[in-house]
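Obj.: predict assembly geometry.
Materials: sequence records (below).
Method: joint structure prediction, all chains together.
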Amino acid sequence: MMSVPTQVLQSEWTKIKSVRSTVWTLGLALVVTVALGALISALTKSQFDKLSMKEKITFDPTFTSFAGMGLGQLAMIVFGVLVVANEYSTGMIRTSLAAVPQRATFLFSKITIAALLALAVSMVTSFLSFFLGQAMLGEHKASISDPGVLRAVVGGGLYMTLISVFAMGVATMLRSPMLSLGILMPFFFLISNILGAVPATKKVAQYFPDQAGRKVMQVITGVGDDESPYGPWGGFTIMVLWVVAALLGGYAVLKERDA
Amino acid sequence: MIEAVGLTKRYGAKTAVHNLSFQVRPGVVTGFLGPNGSGKSTTMRMIVGLDRPTSGQVTIGGLPYAQLPNAPRQVGALLDAKAVHGGRSARLHLLSLAQLAGIPARRVDEVLGVVGLQGVAGKRSKGFSLGMGQRLGIAAALLGDPQVLLFDEPVNGLDPEGILWVRNLMKQLAAEGRTVFVSSHLMSEMALTADHLIVIGRGQLLADMSVQDFIAANSAGFARVRTPDTEPEGREKLTAALVEAGGQVLSEPDGALRVTGVPLPRISDLAHDADVRLWELSPHQASLEEAYMRMTQAAVDYRSTADQRAGLWQAPGPYAQAPGYGHGMPPQGWAQPAPENPYPALPGEQPNPYAQQAAVPAAPAEAPAAPAAPPAAPAAAPADLTKRDSEDAR
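Observations (raw structure tokens):
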């Protein structure tokens, strides 16, 4: 006799691999991130001579190869939202919870499976982006053995994973795919970036999950006006706290509300 | 065995289920009847722990659902046939549910066979018809070979062959000693399938009795009597004579009389004595459907009103005065106004011993009034609704 969590993990694995949206969203996240990163790396190489001296000194070849992540993360958000919110929009949640009355077990097993899958895809994406991007950068490239580079590439994979888990937590709270996407997509694509660029709001925006988490993907930091009060892992921890908060919020909603 | 004690569920000011207590026993099919919105689905959701009762509790075999060890092996439920991810194939949908409960994968193909979906097992359920969806839902309920089965409106969307199949399946499951609890809003269907009935209206228990008792208590016979339309005074004379002889008389929409408590030959004798000619004198049996409608009519949430077609009618045409088409007339051309209550209580009926409230507008002393006056009971029904609404608000 297997334990309940093992059963739920198995069941969630069957669920996640039996719908097309999984392949679509994760595949899109990989392709968009890698392709856009490679394109921007190639463009950077051709324009490198036109950069200012300051820009040349602070040039971060690793982070440049991750340039596609800003767009690719949106597909990860869609994946995270659909994994959770599709249970609600289809009504499947009632069947699932009738089978697993232990709601915490159900939720965290589901998120574990989805997060592991997201982690695998994100890591592949991050390493592919790095190596392809460096190849495009030619003589300006960084090596994986340079100090901080491996951390940044692994961090890139973790970043994309956490973005999708954050989306899962938010979707558990909001229960609707449209509502969740309607809030998360503009936030990460526009609002966070705009607030992060405006000097007045920058101090607040740097604590947003994406901006704090992105720190771990940078190799060359702390130069010029790019000063932030936290280092790579400090920023990563801030992002983890956001994710934990979203998951706890989601669990609180699932536990209290009628399905 | 399912046991509900004082089960109550409120959504804000709306009370969906109010102080419901009942038992569902193993070995019989128990029908769960009520109009749309009467709280059947809410009750079923509370049984499987999806909704938390505001007060009271419901247990299965003595335990709340959430505390049942490996619940899917003990309780199978079809709550909503549409509650599947349309992009997933029938087999993988069932496989994911089987894995949740630690049920071996070969059981999936067994239940697919039982419900007759083997041929479309690999198809995505998006393309399923309503009937196929119901079969898939029934397959999911049967997966764990459970002792307790809940089916919410299982025959919705099924063809006659499918309905017959579900009916036999329910009976067979009960005959195997399982507890089978089936909701429906169709009395006629339940009369054929169920052994025991639990009837609710507006979230409250209206009846909890065997189908036989329900039939005995609710399907009294009556006689239909028509006097010549040309002699309205004959009708009144006969009514008076029948009431004097101890009968109860109600007027039918088309002007005929519905008589209970007086045998047919005696009606004929009375008519003869009163010197009234009869155009019709026929025996009738009130259907179970009618008895059910009568029982629940005060508890119907969604009632259609007459379509006035305001603004669509230019000028009253030549047919405007014909019964049933005139503006001011009730839609079915009722001769006597009883708009709220198409099925007034038959005064000759046995009172329902299980009815907990005045849902059956039984007022035998007032009801057999002369046909000119509307029965008193229907007027009480809307007042009753208002009263209950104000209770809900508390």
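Conclusions so far: Chain B touches chain A through 36 residues (CB under 8 Å).
To do: check interface contacts against the pulldown list.
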